[in-house]
C-alpha cells in the first residue's frame, strides 16, 4: 500500500514508473549476462567438452593409474590438513575471543594473512624453510627427512592456505553467544573441558561445520603453493589439481577436462554444503 | 552486545589452566605454520644485502610483472565495484525465475580449484573455443581470469547490506520526486559504499596474488602477460631463490597493507552502524 501511494505521488506518473521498469530489465540483463559470460558459460562448456563423446572416454581418463594416484594424494592431504585446521581453528578462535594476551593483534593478523597472500609466495616460504638451502635444510638432509618435494611439505602448505576458514567462521559466533552460559556451567561445578563439550561446542557446531566445508574446498583445490613444493613427480607427488595442469600441458585435453569435471563436482558439493550450513542469522 | 561481553570480568578460575594451554597451542601453531616460513622468506630476501635485494626488485622483468599485476588488479576492482553491485542488486531487489540457482552459483569461484577456473576460461575463450573469440596469451585473458576468481567478493559483501537497508528512505525520496538514479546516488549508494569498498579490497588482495587461474590462459609472456606470481614461480623453477624471495617480499608487503586497510575499513563501517 505505501508503495502504491508513493507511485501516485510521483509527479511524473506513469512515465516515471515505466522508466523504472525499463531500468529493472536493463539491470537484470547486464547482471545476468556478466554472470553467464564470466562464470556459467565457461564452466558449462567444460562439462559439455568432457562428455562430448560419451561417458566412456571421460571415465577412462580419470581412472588411469596416474589420475587415481593424484586423487588419492589430494584426499590424503585433505584428510590431514582439514582436521588439523578444525581443531586448531577452534582453539585459535577461543583464544582470540575469550582471552586477552600480549600480541593478540598479531595473532589476529596472522590468521587472516593466508587469505591475502599469493600461494606461490607461500610455497616459496616453505621451500626456503625446509628446502636444501633452507634454514632446516641441512639438518633435515643429515637425518634423512624429506619435507619439500614430498608429501609432508604439500600437507604443510595446504594447512597454511586453508588455515583461516574455521577461525573466521567461529569467532563471530563465539562473540555473539557471550560467556554467561559458560560461567553458569562453571559455577555449577563443570570442569573446563566439560563446559566446552556441553555448552560451547553445541553453540558453535554449525559455524565449525561451515568452516570445515570451506577448509575442505580450499584443501582439495590448492594449486599454486602445492605446485611450488611438490616437485611434480607423476604418480608420486602429483595432486588432482597438478594432474589437471600436467595433462593439459601434455595436450591430453580429455584427461584434463575429465579431472576438472571431478573437481568441479566436488566444488558443487561444497556449494551444497555451504547452503546447508550457512549461518542463518546475519552475524557477519 | 559484544561490548557488554568484553566488559564482563574474566571467567572464574575453573578451566583457566586449560585455556592457558589452548592459548599457548594456538600461538605455537600459528608461529610454526605461518610466522616461521614467512620469517625464512624475509631473511632469504635480505640475506645478500640491501643492494642485491634492490637489484632483484628493480630488474626490468620484475618491475614489468609487478606493474601489470597492480594495473590489472585496479581494473578488476573497478569492474567488480560496478558489476558486483549490479548483481547484488538484482539478487536482492529483483524477482525472476531461477534466482535461487543464480544466487547459489555466485560462490562457485570460491569452491572451484583455480587451475580448473583457468582451464574453463581457456576452453571458451582460447584458440579452440566454439565462439571464435580467442583472447589467450593476452592481457585481456589475465583480466578475465582475475574477474572469474574475484567474482563473489563484492556481491557477497553488498548483498547483506542491501537486504537490511531500510526501504522507507528510498520511498520517501521517490515520493519527493527523486528519480531512480538520484535515489540511488543519494540514498542507496552512501549506505552501500563501505560494503563495496571492503569487497573491492578483498578482490584486490586476491587479484594481486592469483596464480592458478592465470598460469594457463596468460601464456606467461615476459613484459606482456607475466604477472608477479607467475614471475616468482619462474624464478623458483630456474633456481634463483633470492630473486624470487625479493619480489615475494614486495607482494607480502602489499598483502599486509591491504589486510590492514580492510581492518581499518571494518572498524570505520561498524562505527557508522552505531552512530
Beta-strand content of chain A: under 5%
CATH superfamily of the largest domain in chain B: MetI-like
State the largest interface: A-B, 110 and 99 residues
The number of helices of chain A is 14
**H/E topology pattern of chain B:** HHHHHHHHHHHHH
Question: Mind explaining what this structure looks like?
Answer:
The complex is a heterodimer of chains A (284) and B (275). Chain A is mainly α and 284 residues long. Helices cover 79% and strands 0% of the residues of chain A. Chain A is built from 14 helices and no strands. Chain A has helices at residues 2-9, 13-50, 55-62, 65-98, 104-116, 119-130, 137-142, 151-161, 164-177, 180-187, 192-221, 224-230, 240-249, 253-277. In chain A, helix 4 runs antiparallel to helix 11 (192-221), helix 4 (65-98) packs across helix 13 and helix 11 (192-221) packs antiparallel against helix 14. The two termini of chain A are 32 Å apart. Residues 1-12 of chain A have low confidence and may be disordered. By secondary structure, chain B is an all-alpha fold. Chain B folds into two domains: 14-46; 52-274, MetI-like (MetI-like fold). In chain B, helix 4 packs across helix 10 (180-209). The model of chain B is unreliable at 1-15 (pLDDT under 50). Classes of the chains: A mainly alpha (284), B mainly alpha (275). Chains A and B meet through helix 1, helix 2, helix 4, helix 5 and helix 6 of A and helix 1, helix 2, helix 4, helix 5 and helix 6 of B.
Amino acid at each position: 500500500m505505501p508503495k502504491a501511494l508513493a507511485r501516485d505521488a510521483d509527479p511524473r506518473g506513469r512515465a516515471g514508473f515505466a522508466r523504472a521498469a525499463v531500468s529493472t530489465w536493463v539491470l537484470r540483463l547486464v547482471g545476468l549476462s556478466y554472470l553467464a559470460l564470466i562464470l556459467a558459460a565457461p564452466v558449462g562448456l567444460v562439462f559439455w567438452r568432457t562428455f562430448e563423446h560419451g561417458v566412456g572416454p571421460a571415465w577412462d581418463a580419470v581412472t588411469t593409474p596416474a589420475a587415481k594416484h593424484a586423487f588419492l594424494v589430494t584426499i590424503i592431504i585433505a584428510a590431514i590438513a582439514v582436521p588439523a585446521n578444525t581443531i586448531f581453528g577452534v582453539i585459535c578462535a577461543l583464544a582470540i575471543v575469550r582471552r586477552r594476551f600480549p600480541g593478540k593483534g598479531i595473532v589476529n593478523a596472522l590468521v587472516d594473512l593466508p587469505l591475502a597472500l599469493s600461494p606461490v609466495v607461500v610455497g616459496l616460504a616453505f621451500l626456503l624453510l625446509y628446502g636444501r638451502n633452507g634454514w632446516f635444510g641441512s639438518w633435515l638432509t643429515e637425518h634423512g627427512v624429506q619435507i619439500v618435494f614430498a608429501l609432508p611439505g604439500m600437507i604443510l602448505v595446504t594447512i597454511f592456505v586453508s588455515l583461516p576458514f574455521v577461525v573466521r567462521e567461529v569467532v563471530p559466533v563465539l562473540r555473539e553467544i557471550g560467556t554467561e552460559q559458560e560461567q553458569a556451567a562453571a559455577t555449577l561445578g563443570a570442569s573446563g573441558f566439560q563446559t566446552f563439550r556441553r555448552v560451547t561446542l553445541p553453540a558453535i557446531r554449525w559455524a565449525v561445520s561451515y568452516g570445515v566445508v570451506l577448509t575442505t574446498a580450499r584443501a582439495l583445490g590448492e594449486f599454486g603453493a602445492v605446485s611450488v613444493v611438490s616437485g611434480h613427480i607423476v604418480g608420486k607427488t602429483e595432486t588432482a589439481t597438478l594432474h589437471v595442469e600436467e595433462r593439459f600441458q601434455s595436450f591430453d585435453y580429455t584427461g584434463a577436462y575429465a579431472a576438472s569435471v571431478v573437481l568441479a563436482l566436488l566444488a558443487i558439493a561444497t556449494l551444497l554444503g555451504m547452503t546447508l550450513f550457512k549461518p542463518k542469522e546475519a552475524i557477519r | 552486545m559484544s561490548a557488554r561481553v568484553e566488559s564482563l570480568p574474566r571467567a572464574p578460575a575453573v578451566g583457566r589452566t586449560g585455556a592457558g594451554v589452548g592459548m599457548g597451542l594456538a600461538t605455537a601453531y600459528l608461529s610454526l605454520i605461518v610466522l616461521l616460513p614467512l620469517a625464512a622468506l624475509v631473511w632469504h630476501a635480505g640475506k645478500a644485502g640491501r643492494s642485491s635485494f634492490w637489484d632483484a626488485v628493480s630488474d626490468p622483468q620484475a618491475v614489468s610483472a609487478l606493474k601489470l599485476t597492480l594495473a590489472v588488479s585496479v581494473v578488476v576492482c573497478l569492474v567488480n565495484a560496478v558489476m558486483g553491485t549490479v548483481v547484488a542488486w538484482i539478487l536482492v531487489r529483483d524477482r525472476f525465475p531461477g534466482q535461487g540457482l543464480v544466487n547459489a552459483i555466485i560462490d562457485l569461484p570460491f569452491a572451484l580449484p583455480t587451475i580448473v577456473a583457468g582451464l574453463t576460461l581457456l576452453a571458451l575463450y582460447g584458440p579452440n573455443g566454439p565462439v571464435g573469440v580467442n583472447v589467450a596469451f593476452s592481457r585481456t585473458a589475465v583480466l578475465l581470469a582475475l574477474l572469474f576468481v574475484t567474482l563473489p567478493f563484492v556481491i557477497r559483501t553488498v548483498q547483506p547490506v542491501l537486504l537490511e537497508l531500510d526501504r522507507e528512505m528510498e520511498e520517501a525520496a521517490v515520493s519527493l520526486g527523486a528519480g531512480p538514479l538520484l535515489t540511488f546516488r543519494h540514498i542507496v549508494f552512501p549506505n552501500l559504499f563501505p560494503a563495496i569498498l571492503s569487497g573491492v579490497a578483498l578482490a584486490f588482495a586476491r587479484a594481486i596474488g592469483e596464480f592458478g587461474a592465470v598460469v594457463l590462459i596468460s601464456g606467461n609472456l615476459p613484459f606482456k602477460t607475466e604477472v608477479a606470481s607467475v614471475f616468482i614461480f619462474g624464478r623458483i623453477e630456474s633456481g634463483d631463490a633470492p630473486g624470487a624471495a625479493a619480489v615475494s617480499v614486495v607482494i607480502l608487503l602489499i598483502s599486509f597493507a591491504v589486510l590492514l586497510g580492510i581492518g581499518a575499513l571494518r572498524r570505520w563501517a561498524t562505527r557508522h552502524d552505531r552512530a
